[in-house]
Amino acid sequence: MKRVLFLTLCLAVVLMVAASAFAAEITQTIPVKGWHCAGCSAKTEAALQKLEGVKSA
């Protein structure tokens, strides 16, 4: 029984490490047309910052 528990815990650790490897950071560039002032840029940046998963805009 102890061996099964140990193997289960080892498998859980391996799966957690593997899952974190797939959570890589992605950099995305979004071209935007029609900005006329710095306020347009600031409003868009603020809206992007509110999105889940966005680290910087």
Structure described in brief:
The protein is an all-alpha fold and 57 residues long.
Question: What does the secondary structure layout of this molecule look like, with pairings?
Answer:
Blueprint: H1 2-22, H2 38-49
Largest β sheet strand count, sense and barrel closure: none
Overall morphology: rod-shaped
Multimeric state of these chains?
Answer: single chain
Can you give the mean pLDDT?
80
The CA-CA distance between the termini, in Å, is: 51 Å
* CA radius of gyration: 21 Å
Helix proportion: 55-70%
- pLDDT under 50 segments (min length 5)? none
Number of strands: 0
The count of helical stretches stands at: 2
Work out the strand percent.
under 5%
The total domain count is: 1
User: What structural class do helix, strand and pairing data support?
Assistant: mainly alpha
Query: What's the helix-strand series?
Result: HH
Plain-language structure description:
This protein is mostly helical and 57 residues long. It has helices at 2-22, 38-49. Helix content is 58%, strand content 0%. The longest helix is centred in the first third of the chain and has 21 residues, at 2-22.
Q: What structural keywords apply?
A:
58% helix, 57 residues, mainly alpha, rod-shaped, 2 helices
